[in-house]
Here is the input.
Amino acid sequence: MACWLVFSFHGRPKRGIDDAQILFSYSSNLAAGHGLVYANNPEHVEGATSFLWTLICAIPFRLGLDESGVLAIAVLILCLTQILILDIIRRSAAARQLPSWPFELAYLFLVFSCPAYFTWMSITLMDTCLWGFLLVLMIYVALQPPRSPLGMVVASIPFFFAPLSRPEAVLVAPSIIVLAWVHDEASQEDRRRLVLSLTTAVFVSVAAVTIFRLSYFGYPLPNTYYAKVSPSLVYNLQEGRDYLYRYASTSGPIIAISVLFVLGLAAWCAGALAVRLSSYLRTRRWPFARIANWKLSALAAAILLFIPVLTGGDHFSMFRFYQPAYPLMILALVLSLMAWSPAGASAPLASLLRLKRHLVPSCFLSLLLAYGAYHFLQAPSWSSIRDTRPIRGEFFIAENGIRTGKRLSGLFAGAATLPTIGVYAAGGVARTYPGRIVDLMGLNTPAIAHYPGDHKGIKNHAAFEKDAFFKLGRIDLLLASPPVPPETANFGSRAFKGLMYDPRFVREWRYGLLYLSGDQDDGLEAFYYARYVDSLVATARYQFRETMKWSNKWVAVDSAGGAEIHN
Here is the structure.
């Protein structure tokens, strides 16, 4: 129901966001037997961050389904994630001889108050749902460590798949293994076997995927890492710090409380660890103490809050990178409440149990909590997301790219060769344009991603460098537009870092409407390489009309008289 609500509130998007369409380009090519390639380009390049999600999404495409099949998989994974967390709560409550239903309801209430979580876990069609599921599976293993050899093999599965799902798993999975070792009350030998089994799974996975990447793509990490992450650690930490601060300060009181609780507990545990290390250095005896369930969950969530700080955060609305950590933060809050409750149904828990026998007070409290969740506990709340639809622009970019690709296909259907196009929104257009595409943001173009530069600027769109553009070779058409006066900048001009004003560019490129002779309505307005558009016009099949002209700045051209319009 929550997924249906965010689906409806965002206008029933069926394609996912544009970044998901990039991944689907690889998945559909793989399903069609073309290999892991972007669009119709021949080069092997890994422009999808999640290798495992790319493989999973290839299944519905292979079966002849569209993105609706991916959405069904995402919602199924989301449901399984919640079932696992509820089982953790039930087992923890049983261990303390407490009824689990009040804690289950508390968890569900807090999670269902967050529309941002359900948005990123479902209708965006990104790998967020898969990564969140594997995180919960790994936490489940840490909290419920197996004892039998077969159980350890089964428990190793999520640790094997984690590095295939996200690159940051090489930090997250070993951290959870350490937490599992500290948490486990078994004998030293059993703990050693568990750690060995889980570590082996991670090592084999990392080694296998790295060898595959080096042999197939030529690089040890996804191309998106090189395109998005700045080589400056200081810059990344500054950007990541701001990303975490915005998440805690602008996402509502529940998020703020959860982040403060998780980070505060992490700081306290770090202090306790320092004391233990100091004692160990003096006595050479490690004062081992088992870590509680709620502390383990909070520490795991703290790790997930810290990882995006290292890479500089993200540019999407509603904090995509932190959504997989959200249910773990809530789980830590609920388990801490459970740990601080007295055994049996006494004290504050008894009042909760009495509500079960008093229908009217119970319904009143439920309605009050629901009203608070609907309006105040999250930002965006369920009431505001219906009107603001914070990421509706991302769905529009995907749909617009798909339409643009179809328009390009029709416009150049009779051409001897399809033009090579340059883009900065590389998802939707890759699904429908049959020619070569150059992703100038670098996600799917290694020559851009690996070109020297500080990668500072628009977050996740800062890999572009002008010199790299002029070394790329043939590009016939650039899907971008100059700022319309009196505006002096737009997204394209900022992402291309002044390319539109470079003397080399304005000398060789023209902006205007290209259309089939006599069919101006189906034309396409963009930047065209001057020699290419002249060759098309020379065939008499095409006509070109400049709509903006360079005169020390880009100015509009009067379509009637051909005069420049200065502002």
Strands lie at 421-423, 437-439, 477-478, 509-516, 519-529, 542-550, 554-557, 564-565. The chain has 25 helices and eight strands.
